[in-house]
Specification:
This protein is α+β, with helices and mostly antiparallel strands and about 90 residues long.
Length: about 90
Amino acid sequence: MTAKILKEISEISTPGFFITAEFSQIGERMPVGIDSFIKSKLSIIAEGVHARKFVFQEETWRIILTFFPTNSVVDERYALKNKIMKNMI
């Protein structure tokens, strides 16, 4: 069912953003409010809210959605980084 949800999220028009989804709780039935949730968050981002991470909750579902702008570098707090430790002898 998580694959169906990811497909649904990928099919939602999110101009200027791509969205990642992390499932922190999984439910038994398909959630129905994801589309309207994402659109409402895009609306508040357009109004100037700086948050990019939102939690969708419906019944037992809990999905953490992160909105990444497609026209700029990923913010430092969301970047994946490789850390290299040099062994100094």
